[in-house]
Amino acid sequence: MMLRLIVLMVSGGLAYAMLRGWPAVLPGLPRACIAVLLLVGGLSWWAIGRKTEDLPLAKGARKPGWLDFCSIGMGLLALECGFLWVLSAAPEPLEEMAIQLEERFRPEAAEKRAKAELQSTGGGNWLWEDERRRSLPMRTNLKPGAKPEVFIRMVKDEDVAGLLAEQIYVHAFALERFEGSVWSAAEQKEERVEAGADGWIRFDGEREGEILHEVFHGEDTGGRDVFTSLQGARGVRLPWLRVVGEGISLLPDSSRPSGYEYFASSVPVTLKDLEGADVVSKPGIPGDSDSRIRQIALRAAGQGTLRERLLNIENFLRENYTYSLVTTNPKNLEPLENFLFEEKRGHCEFFATAGALMARELGVEARVAYGWSGGQFFKANKMFVFRAREAHAWVEVNIEGFGWVLMEPTPPSALGGGGSPTVASEGEKFPEPEEVLAEEDEGDGLGSADVSLMAIGLAGAFAVGAALMVLVREKVRPEANGRSNVGGKEMGGYYAAWRREGRRRGVAEAGRTLKRQVEEMEERPPFAEELLGYHYGVKYEEKCADAELEKRLERKIRGWGGGKS
Fold it and tell me: pLDDT for 230-246, tens place per residue?
């Protein structure tokens, strides 16, 4: 009993692990099928070996056998594959139906959606919506992953020490127009910028202290790839860029299977780096902020130089608001209103939005930048690795003579390592960019059509297998079970053998008792009295079944009928 229970628990544990994604080398469909087989196998091993006294009070007509469990397993697999086929085949026709219904009953919404699909250039490895927009969500429940997304390889050893000692930011794009709860790119005529004779595209000329680095990241199959580098980009070695906004530049198509690889140069500058400098902001246009935001901005900024007032806003948001990936917005307020005045918690995008709008109330040109912060440094490869969970948003303010300077209102404790990179241990495996990014592009190698065909094929095969198992079970049931049910009593294999012989002799008809069958025989079997006595004793007199006697009677019946005894 204990051994069977252990087998059941082990099979259940393995099935659970496989449904959770182990081992990762197996595709999802085979893993799910194997998990079902493990469960059915464990249950069959546990049930088939049970003794009569182990059976539950609610008993079936007979004890299940291995054919029963095989047919159940095949049936479950057929249902599972059929369900997968529905999931893989149904979305496209359902989407087409939804589009048709929208065109019929909501023509304005359909026209707007079609226009967005045609005009969208999107952008980047971060979370970017159509038409270069980012909407603040009403509620959040974020669960970021750990897949490497951007790799930064350093060229000079002396630059590594400085980055390891500071917060490190990788800039993907920035948005500067805020309306309602949506950040978007300011309207600007797109411009194609060509590289110079040295192969570099320069932004506002060279500057002392530039950090040369090599950038690796994946390619977006929709052609929405943005120039990505350390914050404060000064140049990039590419043939051309398509500048579509003040903080947005789209890359040319990549010919590499693993995405993009290019050199860039940056001079990261934060507000703290400007200590002692004459900080004057280029005048900005205040956003659509209400008087409540202006009041809270002026109160938080306090008195002092512009740099000190901006740092005060940073500290105010860090100290009075809580970083959280989950927000509930119980009163259904506007997202920023809920963050600032009601729930007072949210992720980095809420902190960045509040910081940018509060900076604008001081007359500062400010925007929200998106990318990654923190990262992990691998010394042997001189490579910083940034994962999905390190995606981040922050504020950039435009300071005369310095350009876009970083302002960080998000609490440092919310960032891995406080925004500073961690250093990988010597034994930790380095995720090669070519391998990781190529995997990201290739996926699992199966399209929806392939999955649909595989699922329907397996569903059909398993359904046929289940039907065959049922037929085989019905054919061999007497021999396999060795027991029959008579008047609610489960009788031994001797009775099944007697009915077979009786049918052959023409006396075992429905409605005739065993006694009448014996009496109507021209030649009574020599063991008739023994058979009748035992049979009616077990059936009506509550006598205990005798397995040895039943086997002896079964041998006698077979021998009497010409079979082996």
Answer: 999 999 999 999 998 88
Write the CA distances from 44 to 40, 144, 350, 476, 481, integer angstroms. Answer: 6, 40, 54, 18, 15
The domain ranges of the chain are 2-90+450-480, 120-442, 485-560
Q: With CA atoms as reference, report the closest residue to 269 among 308, 233, 232.
A: 232
Closest CA to 183 of 391, 438, 395: 395
Average pLDDT over all residues of the chain: 80
Torsion angle (degrees, nearest 10) of CA 385, 389, 391, 395: -120
Classify residue 152 as exposed, middle or buried by CB count within 10 Å of its CB (0-12, 13-18, 19+). Answer: buried
| Residues 355-383, mean pLDDT to the nearest whole number | 94
Is pLDDT of 114 > 60? Answer: no
Neighbours of 411 (CB within 10 A): 17
State in Å, rounded, how far the first CA of the chain is from the last one.
Answer: 34
- Backbone dihedral region for residue 522 (phi beyond 0: left; psi -120 to 50: alpha; all else: beta): alpha
For residues 545-561, one letter each, b for 16 or more C-beta atoms within 10 angstroms of the residue's C-beta and e for the rest, the string is eeeeebebbbbbbbebb
Q: Is the pLDDT of residue 143 over 80?
A: yes
Over 80: is that where the pLDDT of 151 sits?
yes
Task: Tell me what pLDDT residue 487 has.
Answer: 46
Which of 59-63, 253-257, 551-555 is least confident?
A: 59-63
d(CA 353, CA 368): 7
| Percent of the chain clearing pLDDT 90 (strictly above) | 36
Higher pLDDT, 354 or 220: 354
Question: Is residue 231 packed enough to be buried (19+ CB in 10 Å), middle (13-18) or exposed (0-12)?
Answer: buried
Listing DSSP states for 203-258 in one string gives SSS--TT-EEEEEEE---TTS--B--EESSEEEEESSEEEEEETTEEEPPPP-BTT
Give the pair of three-digit tokens for residue 141: 């429940």
In 3D space, the residue among 7, 12, 73 whose CA is nearest the CA of residue 37 turns out to be 73
The span from the CA of 365 to the CA of 342, in Å, is 27
Higher pLDDT, 70 or 285: 70
Torsion of CA 519, 524, 530, 531, to 10 degrees: -60
How many angstroms separate the Cα of 45 from the Cα of each of 4, 5, 49, 59, 70?
7, 9, 6, 18, 11
Closest CA to 478 of 462, 502, 506: 502
CA angle 300, 303, 305 (to 5 degrees): 110
Angle of CA points 361, 362, 363, to nearest 5° = 90
